[in-house]
Design brief:
100 residues; alpha+beta; four-stranded antiparallel β-sheet; 3 helices; 4 strands
């Protein structure tokens, strides 16, 4: 079952570190079977109070594979850069089929 890693980047505090992150992250995502579905873009809030700032959505083949990527040696240094350079939220969402 597919799974999704959703980032909402609220603030970039160190742009230079984020540039290094951007240059290296794609190959790590692809190595674990992931693909970007969206990077940024307009968000129209139609219910509730949540105000996404800069959404990033990555699809993985499974929740297990998403966690493997997130905890991987390949991603470790890049993740540290992102955490130092931004303020935001991240959630993993397991995809489930809608059933009647």
């Amino acid at each position: 079952m597919s799974a999704y890693c959703f980032f909402d980047i609220l603030e970039v505090t160190e742009p230079e570190k984020m540039e290094i992150y951007r240059e290296g992250v794609l190959s790590t995502v692809e190595h674990y079977g992931g693909r970007y579905l969206t990077v940024g873009g307009q968000c129209d809030v139609v219910e509730g109070q949540w105000q996404p700032v800069f959404p990033v959505l990555i699809e993985f083949p499974s929740l297990e594979q998403a966690h493997r990527w997130y905890d991987s040696e390949e991603y470790r240094e890049l993740k540290a850069l992102r955490l130092e350079a931004t303020r935001g939220n991240t959630v993993f969402i397991e995809g489930n089929e809608f059933r009647r």
